[in-house]
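Hi R.,

As promised on Friday, here is the backbone we talked about, encoded as structure tokens. Could you run it through your design pipeline when you get a chance and send me back a sequence?
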């Protein structure tokens, strides 16, 4: 059975934390040092702050048989804030389904360009989907540098679709 993409629902927040945490601790760990992983996704999180952030970005959720496999968002300006696939489900097409949905959303919004701050781990995936590295960056989280890249993709001259 193929996963389906659905809108975020209140109540998904803690499961999305688990997806985020597992993606970083099980997948990104191959490209980052332990102190970087712990600064990026610490074992302890403020659940209220996390829930507020997730509600604010309003992501799409990839789900199969009631299990959330990943999530991603597209902001009205074309920026992707979060794009994560569970550490239990890498390289199974979940990211591609989410990326396809983000492209559909971009077309419906009439967005001309998509951008994201992309981890070393995800850069090849984003490149396969037509994103180009604009700039390598060295953001600091919890006092630790966690390198990433600003990546962008120019889209066709989309016009907003009517609902």
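Update: got your reply. Pasting your designed sequence below so it's all in one thread:
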């Amino acid at each position: 059975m193929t996963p389906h993409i659905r809108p975020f629902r209140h109540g998904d927040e803690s499961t999305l934390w688990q997806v985020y945490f597992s993606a970083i601790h099980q997948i990104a760990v191959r490209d980052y040092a332990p102190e970087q992983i712990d600064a990026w996704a610490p074992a302890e999180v403020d659940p209220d702050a996390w829930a507020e952030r997730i509600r604010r970005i309003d992501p799409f959720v990839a789900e199969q048989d009631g299990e959330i496999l990943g999530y991603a968002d597209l902001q009205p300006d074309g920026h992707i804030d979060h794009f994560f696939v569970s550490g239990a489900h890498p390289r199974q097409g979940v990211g591609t389904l989410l990326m396809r949905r983000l492209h559909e959303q971009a077309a419906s919004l009439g967005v001309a360009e998509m951008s994201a701050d992309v981890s070393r781990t995800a850069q090849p995936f984003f490149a396969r989907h037509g994103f180009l590295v604009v700039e390598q960056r060295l953001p600091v989280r919890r006092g630790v540098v966690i390198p990433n890249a600003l990546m962008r993709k120019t889209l066709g001259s989309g016009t907003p679709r009517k609902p």
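One thing I noticed while checking it: Strands lie at 4-7, 60-64, 67-72, 79-80, 83-85, 113-119, 132-137, 140-141, 144-145, 148-154.

Thanks again,
M.
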